[in-house]
Amino acid sequence: MTIERSIAAFARARNVIAGGVNSSVRAFKAVGGSPIFMKSGTGATICDVDGHAYIDYVLSWGPLLLGHAHPAVTKAVTAAVARGSTFGAPTEAESELAELISSMMPGIERLRFTSSGTEAAMSAVRLARGYTRREKIVKFAGCYHGAADAFLIAAGSSALTLGVPSSPGVPRGTAADTIVVPYNDADAVDATFAANAGAVAAVIVEPYAGNMGLVLPKPGFLERVRAACERARAVLIFDEVMTGFRVARGGAQERLGVRPDLTVLGKVIGGGLPVGAFGGRREIMEYLSPDGPVFHAGTLSGNPLAMAAGIATLKVVREDSALFDRLEVMTGLLTEGLSEVMRKHGAPHRTARAGSMFGLFFTREPVVDLASAMTSDTALYAKYFHAMLERGVLLAPSQYEAAFVSTAHTTRDVERTLAAADEALAAIATAAP
Ligand SMILES: *Cc1c(COP(=O)(O)O)cnc(C)c1O
Predict the structure, then answer these.
(1) 413 is catalytic
(2) Ligand 1 pocket test: which of 114, 125, 144 has the largest number of ligand atoms within 8 Å of its C-beta?
(3) Cα(290)–Cα(292) distance, rounded to whole angstroms?
(4) Beta-carbon count within 10 A of 374 CB
(5) S-S: 214 plus which of 48, 202, 376, 402, CB 3.0-4.6 Å?
């Protein structure tokens, strides 16, 4: 497979963009080789600058629930841009998207839009601190909540891949206020509350952890975290940037039946445009300015184009009651098919799935937290990634990411993916030393 134009594009980018990319994981450091530059996408297919087409399981890292260039989204954004791209004043579209979200997601009584998930998570933590007048937050190792300082304490996602668990530039004072405990370890949460009585403002968690690969919560884990927050009067924040409108119509909170105090959103709610949101219980959200004392602002927050894309996407979700059932079936076919291929080739593996998210680890260990996720054979993943890429299947360029299925993926795509995986593993085995 020739990727000459991608290589040239990367060389050009490196001359002017730090590291050649605008988000670290895009640089392919975890799998080696030169990043593929993309040009277009339609449905489940993404096309690169050298003219190769791939079945896309990255989907821009989650936002594209309906696939690339969905006609309803394209039409809505095109119409919106013709009316003017930003006003710096409220528009009715913001209420429309907020109503759609609030009607489908159990925990959202009031919300506020931002331009990214990072901003939303950062703002939710500030709000929780202002509301409780406490400073410490608890997060789980391997959970990712965006690139703000308070979260880059043994963070997952690309920070994990790059082997920089806590980034230089994050002040020690900030790190001292973030307590990191293992995912799925409710005893550790109880112990943390006991050791920090009256000091914990919030616990923030990905209800399904999707930034160390996909790691599911053990039964009872989130219920116990909920109860611990209740007892300590700390705010429970679900980071549903990835899982919101991805694992179920009402997100993980609906699927699991656990109600957070605040929810952080992003990705799907922007339909492929830059959006984040945080929301939840009214009495907490009223602490935000201008009603309350906690500051929040954003020049492009609630941007009309982003609202239009989000509204078009969530209307499809609202109007198609079988959408998540179909996604679940498709993701099941794919995940079970991949397990079968792995077994056939004797590859150590663990799979997980929830709604339209799935994950595959090359390990024999059950994966329940960051430590067990890190038993995965990342060298094998790198070979698998490249072998799949050559066969027209795009996976995330890192073991420690979840994969996604869109409504545009078909059983034919799944069959082609499984055939590619079968060939890829055979090729890897033959090439092994
Ligand atoms: C992607 C992600 C974020 C960050 O969102 P950005 O829009 O990339 O800033 C935060 N939390 C989770 C769980 C995510 O998956």
Answers:
(1) no
(2) 144
(3) 6
(4) 18
(5) 402
* Cβ atoms within 10 Å, residue 5: 15
Asked if residue 266 has its Cβ within 6 Å of ligand 1, the reply is yes
Q: Is 267 among the catalytic positions?
A: yes
Q: How far is the CA of 128 from the centre of ligand 1 (A)?
A: 18
**Site to substitute for ligand 1 among 25, 143, 145, most atoms within 8 A of C-beta:** 145
Fold for domain 4-69+322-431? Aspartate Aminotransferase, domain 1 (3.90.1150)
State the Cα–Cα distance between residues 117 and 52, nearest whole angstrom.
31
**127 token code pair:** 């709000």
Query: What sign does the CA torsion over 74, 76, 79, 82 have?
Result: negative
Q: Which of 185, 239, 261, 422 is catalytic?
A: 239
- Name 114's Cβ contacts closer than 8 Å, sequence gap at least 6: 120, 123, 275, 276, 277, 278, 298, 301
From the CB of 213, is ligand 1 less than 6 Å away?
Answer: no
Residue extents of the structural domains in the chain: 4-69+322-431, 71-319
pTM, rounded to two decimals:
0.96
Is 239 a catalytic site residue?
yes
CATH of domain 71-319: 3.40.640.10
Residue 138, φ and ψ in degrees, nearest 5: -115, 130
Q: Which atom of ligand 1 is nearest to the CA of 146?
A: 4
Per-residue pLDDT of the chain in tens (433 residues, 90 and over written 9): 899 999 999 999 999 999 999 999 999 999 999 999 999 999 999 999 999 999 999 999 999 999 999 999 999 999 999 999 999 999 999 999 999 999 999 999 999 999 999 999 999 999 999 999 999 999 999 999 999 999 988 643 333 333 334 688 888 788 888 989 999 999 999 999 999 999 999 999 999 999 999 999 999 999 999 999 999 999 999 999 999 999 999 999 999 999 999 999 999 999 999 999 999 999 999 999 999 999 999 999 999 999 999 999 999 999 999 999 999 999 999 999 999 999 999 999 999 999 999 999 999 999 999 999 999 999 999 999 999 999 999 999 999 999 999 999 999 999 999 999 999 999 999 886 6
Atom 15 in ligand 1: which residue has the minimum CA distance? 242
